[in-house]
């Protein structure tokens, strides 16, 4: 029996990845085909299966990668072919997202579909700007309209005369280009020129920016500040509440564009911590993790891990690759025997604990030299050790432990190679928009970043996770402006916040 396809019209929310619904994520995770708009958070694409067909259909004001009729034909065609199609649309698909039109096309074609609502920027945008769209001290009505239509030309489906007289909050999308005409028309039809108005662009993201004024002044303010779309506008007395409850734009890293160069799989951990503090994060993976060249030798050494006195892990990647191979060879954790386990730092230790194993040795300094210092407090002479490592790792551990009398074997679990794909256009964004800080979590991220030949942005700071990575930055002519004293992800984030706080105190 032929599999019947289905199309999911999915709201991607306003931009903040945390505002995507659970159902939306479920749909993306099982998609065969994913058609996404420019306003959907690129991080959502990571949830799609590796073999998913990803199609960028653009759909930004005046910039359409694919015309709407072609999108309609495509979702029908792929669904008829038995595919699970996800049409990912910024905000909510049924609020100025043409989701109703796409649903009608699917219904007319007789193919199954499901509508997955999303959080609309018409509500989320003002909320992240500290503006409640309803408030019992100000209003009991909310009106949402499109600013896409030109109010000065011909018949309009937007009744500006009625809008000007309608009480309560008014919210409109897609109106930055016609802001002057919209506000002037509202005033001409009786709205008070002193009515408060706020515009928020890239709402709910680290790039969020809000301007406020009145119907009389906001167009000039937008021109002066070079305010551009995409933006949501809110009109009414509720705008005054922003002075009291502007919460999002007061975060310590708000307004800072920070680049994360870790692998695609790991970038989210650092990126989320930075975004939670208000940063505008660009995830630009410069490396990826590939299998070792000799997979047979790796599998053999993992299978023999139970014969060693010590297992040494110096990265979360090594832990993950080791246990993936271990559980392919054995179905019982007890098959590992009873070796003692050493981890280079808390991130690696946390990954080991995910597999329900206890770490016996954790150094005070989270670098190879710190691990050697910790081992010097142990008796290691004639003990057998298996070091699970990347192919490119420095040989400090093996050299020093061998000098201490240990019998150490190196188990190459993975290779760190250059990332060659950039599905979200992060490199182009960095080239075009620049950045305030670029973070580096290993020497390999440094080397491969500079191999990309991206000009270093003016005024941009380099942030290093520790001295080894910092040394590599110096070799490339970019001494770290920020270096973590605790050499893990939380330590790096803390160092960035402390540095920026100190800089602000000095100015």
What would you say about this model in short?
34% of the residues lie in helices and 20% in strands.
Please characterize this protein's 3D structure.
The chain has 18 helices and 20 strands. α11 packs parallel to α12 (346-354) and α16 packs parallel to α17. The chain starts with 5 loop residues before the first strand and ends with a helix. It has 507 residues and is an alpha/beta fold. 34% of the residues lie in helices and 20% in strands. The strands form 4 sheets. It has a 5-stranded parallel beta sheet, sandwiched between helices. It has a 5-stranded mixed beta sheet with strand order 6-7-10-8-9, with helices on both faces. The protein has 4 domains: 6-118, Tetrapyrrole methylase, N-terminal domain (Cobalt-precorrin-4 Transmethylase, domain 1, 3-Layer(aba) Sandwich); 123-250, Methyltransferase, Cobalt-precorrin-4 Transmethylase, Domain 2 (2-Layer Sandwich), CATH 3.30.950; 257-286 and 419-506, 3-Layer(aba) Sandwich (Rossmann fold); 291-418, Rossmann fold, CATH 3.40.50. It has helices at residues 22-29, 68-80, 99-109, 121-128, 160-165, 179-188, 218-224, 242-245, 264-276, 295-303, 316-329, 346-354, 368-375, 396-403, 426-433, 443-451, 467-475, 489-506; strands at residues 6-11, 33-37, 53-58, 84-89, 113-116, 142-146, 169-173, 196-201, 209-214, 231-235, 257-260, 280-283, 287-290, 310-313, 340-343, 384-390, 407-418, 437-440, 461-464, 482-483. β11, α9 and β12 (280-283) form a beta-alpha-beta unit.
